[in-house]
């Protein structure tokens, strides 16, 4: 059922009713008799083919698994009572997950994707620069917490907690069995996703770091400064267990782009394949892996986007953007990269020219060809506020600043762009939305979720 666009976001559905109890003997019979290894019979599935993590999936592509409507309408909206801290993820089977920053009450919400009803919420010691639950195809979630990763069942019960030195920035399912964990201090671990038991020893990819506080340095992750050794999620090739990230080792003058591989079997272990120095520095944004696995993309400190070969880390091309994005680029199916926006841009009034911050972000499309980075198109008239989303049919979804806000404060609008030339196919103003935008995502059914830092979730479809 579609909902009209009201002035204030709010709950649009009745509370979930209690589910009928299943007789214990029937449950026991099902558990003991279920030996199928088909998709419907397996106890776990790999990472959901929906928006399953902060950057959309293991490769950090910012890519939706479904097309979006050419004229999306508001389905529902609701406030969660606290600022939002990351992108909404989804399991592809009907649930959307959103984390908040709250000193009391729930800070992880499971909402019914169709109408926004609260399925459950939990109070967890979450922590990190971008707090987004990683989800598998059955709705099991893995959430970054203070000093480790927590695994929750589809109904919200805590299943296990595994500690790690630091705050997890990478939480990726390599398959339906193994979970890759990498902290902002550069510690890599693999654990059994079913039980939480070790599948490898802990490996320091950024050198030995002796920090007594797990959150030490996390404040520097957003900008990629040396105080945060590994600021963003690794781009992971799940087929080979190879992953790519930026790391800044203690005592080094410059950060590095690092390629490593998880080798399973017996006592699994990590192998560093190569390291490439980044003499121009880096941002705190995650690297992105190309569809064919031959290139990874990373931003320099001035915002310049570089393409690197995955076999040896050699620079293949670079392209200046003219600004420093806070979020990674989204990858269109034709290989075009659409640069991200700025979640930290603060609006200080209509006369403000952002002289003392990094300023608003245009929408820029880049493609690397013949050893050079080419600007495909550019929208300087748009001020992008968060990560973009690319769709399989060549569209780009962006959240931008709108002048149609309340009073003297600007609002938020969503534009659906043509990925070929950047023209606006459709746009709409998000009602009563102001301030920064913490994330933009698209679920497996093509629903667009807009998460505002002020604490509201809006879903369009």
Question: Which key phrases capture this entry?
Answer:
mainly beta; 4-stranded antiparallel sheet; globular; 2% helix; 461 residues
Brief digest:
The chain is mostly beta strands and 461 residues long.
Notes on the structure:
The chain is mainly beta and 461 residues long. Helix content is 2%, strand content 38%. It contains 1 helix and 32 strands. The strands form 8 sheets. It has a 4-stranded antiparallel β-sheet, with no helix packed on it. Strands 2-3-4-5 form a 4-stranded antiparallel β-sheet, with no helix packed on it. A hairpin with a 2-residue loop joins strand 7 (141-145) and strand 8 (148-152). It is globular, with a radius of gyration of 21 Å.
What's the alpha carbon Rg, rounded to whole Å?
21 Å
Sheet/helix structural class: mainly beta
Averaged pLDDT: 87
Q: What does the main sheet amount to?
A: 4 strands, antiparallel
Q: How much beta, percentage-wise?
A: 35-45%
Layout of strands and helices, then pairs:
Layout lengths: L23 H10 L40 E6 L9 E2 L4 E5 L8 E5 L5 E5 L11 E2 L5 E5 L2 E5 L5 E6 L4 E6 L4 E6 L3 E6 L10 E2 L30 E3 L4 E6 L8 E8 L5 E9 L10 E2 L5 E5 L5 E5 L5 E5 L10 E2 L5 E2 L22 E9 L2 E13 L4 E2 L4 E8 L8 E8 L5 E11 L2 E6 L5 E5 L3 E5 L1
Antiparallel strand pairs: 1-32, 2-3, 3-4, 4-5, 6-7, 7-8, 8-9, 10-11, 11-12, 12-13, 14-15, 15-16, 16-17, 18-19, 19-20, 20-21, 22-23, 23-24, 24-25, 26-27, 27-28, 28-29, 30-31, 31-32
């Amino acid at each position: 059922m579609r909902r009209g666009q009201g002035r204030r976001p709010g709950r649009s559905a009745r509370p979930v009713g209690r589910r009928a109890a299943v007789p214990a003997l029937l449950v026991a019979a099902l558990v003991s008799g279920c030996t199928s290894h088909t998709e419907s019979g397996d106890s776990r599935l790999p990472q959901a083919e929906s928006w399953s993590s902060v950057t959309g999936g293991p490769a950090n592509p910012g890519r939706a698994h479904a097309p979006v409507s050419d004229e999306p309408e508001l389905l529902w909206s609701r406030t969660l009572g606290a600022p939002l801290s990351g992108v909404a993820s989804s399991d592809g089977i009907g649930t959307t997950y959103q984390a908040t920053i709250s000193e009391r009450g729930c800070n992880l919400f499971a909402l019914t994707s169709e109408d926004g009803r609260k399925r459950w919420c939990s109070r967890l010691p979450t922590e990190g620069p971008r707090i987004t639950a990683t989800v598998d195809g059955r709705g099991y979630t893995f959430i970054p917490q203070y000093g480790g990763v927590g695994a929750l069942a589809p109904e919200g019960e805590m299943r296990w907690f595994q500690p790690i030195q630091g705050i997890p920035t990478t939480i990726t399912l390599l398959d339906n069995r193994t979970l890759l964990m990498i902290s902002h201090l550069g510690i890599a671990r693999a654990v059994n996703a079913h039980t939480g038991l070790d599948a490898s020893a802990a490996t320091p990819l950024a050198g030995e770091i002796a920090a007594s506080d797990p959150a030490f340095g996390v404040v520097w992750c957003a900008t990629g400064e040396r105080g945060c050794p590994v600021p963003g999620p690794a781009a992971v090739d799940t087929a080979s267990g190879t992953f790519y990230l930026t790391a800044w080792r203690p005592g080094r003058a410059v950060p590095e782009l690092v390629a490593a591989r998880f080798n399973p079997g017996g006592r699994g272990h990590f192998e560093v394949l190569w390291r490439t120095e980044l003499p121009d520095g880096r941002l705190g944004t995650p690297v992105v892996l190309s569809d064919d696995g031959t290139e990874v993309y990373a931003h320099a400190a001035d915002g310049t986007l570089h393409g690197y070969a995955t076999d040896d880390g050699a620079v293949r091309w670079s392209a200046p953007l003219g600004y420093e994005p806070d979020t990674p680029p989204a990858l269109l199916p034709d290989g075009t990269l659409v640069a991200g926006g700025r979640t930290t841009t603060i609006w200080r009034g209509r006369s403000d020219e952002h002289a003392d911050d990094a300023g608003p972000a245009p929408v820029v499309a880049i493609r690397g060809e013949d050893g050079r980075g080419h600007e495909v198109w550019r929208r300087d008239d748009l001020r992008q506020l968060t990560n973009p989303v690319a769709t399989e049919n060549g569209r780009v979804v962006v959240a931008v600043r709108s002048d149609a806000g309340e009073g003297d404060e600007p609002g938020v609008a969503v534009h659906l762009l043509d990925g070929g030339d950047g023209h606006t196919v459709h746009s709409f103003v998000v009602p009563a939305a102001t301030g920064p935008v913490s994330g933009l995502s698209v679920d497996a059914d093509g629903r667009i979720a807009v998460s505002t830092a002020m604490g509201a979730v809006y879903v369009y479809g």
